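---------- Forwarded message ----------

FYI, see the Monooxygenase record below. Original note from H. follows.
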Amino acid sequence: MAVIMHVDFPHKDVWGKEMASQMKELAKSINKEPGFIWKFWTESKKDNMAGGVYMFDTRENAENYLKMHSKRLSEFGYSNIRGKVFEINEELSNICKAPF
């Protein structure tokens, strides 16, 4: 069963188009992760936060990615990384036009 994962962390570097330019290869690599379905990249310059909302095919694949990604972010110098995996209520999500 598909799951949603939310990740965020303090970020004070680049935003918008500059972030897109610098993170393009990382974005392409995420497409190759086991069980990956999609990702919304999130950023709030006002709150100095960045992250994403992901969909994976299973909790196991999401948790494996979260572990690897948290380590990678730490190696990039980020701290206070938060990540949570959630099951999806598909019936209610379909009513609310979720992008399955």
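H. also flagged this: The chain has three helices and four strands.
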